[in-house]
Amino acid sequence: MFVLVGFIEELTLGAGGQASEQDLVTGLSKPAGVAMAGDQLFVSDQGTGQVLAYSLAAVRKQPATAADGRVVATFTTADGLDLMTAAADGTLYFGGSGGTLYAVSPQGAVKTLASGWPGIRGVAYDARNKRLFAAVAAPDATSAASIRIVPID
Fold first, then answer.
1. Where are the alpha helices (DSSP H) in the chain?
2. At a CB cut-off of 8 Å and minimum separation 6, what does 127 contact?
C-alpha cells in the first residue's frame, strides 16, 4: 500500500511482474500514516487531525470516502500526525511534528507516551520486547536526529 495526497491505494503485484492499483479510500485531506491490524485499515489525516478506521475487506470491494471512516481519535492539526504502526490488538502508535508520541487504544482512549520532542517522523513497534522505536527529528540544523526507545507496558 502507498499513500497519494488525498487517497489510499493498494498496489498488487501479479504473475509476471504485472502490477495493478486500486483506490481504497478517497477524499482525504492529507493522509500521512497507514497501519493495519486484522481487518482494520487505519489512516491518520494531517489535514483534519483525525485517525480513521475502515474495514479492509469492505474497501477492497468498494472504495470508501473519508466521511465513511470511523473516527478513532481526533487531534489538532498542530499535532501534525505522521507515520504510525499498529499492534496486533489494534492499539495505534504514532507521533508527529508536534513532538508528542501517542498510543490510541482500539476503543479510542488516547495516552501520551512522551512529549517535548522536536518532532516524530515515524514509529515501529517491537511486540516481542514490548517497546516502541521513534524516529525523532533533529532539533536544529547543527544537531543529529535520533531513534528513541520507549517501553510499552
1. 56-61
2. 87, 88
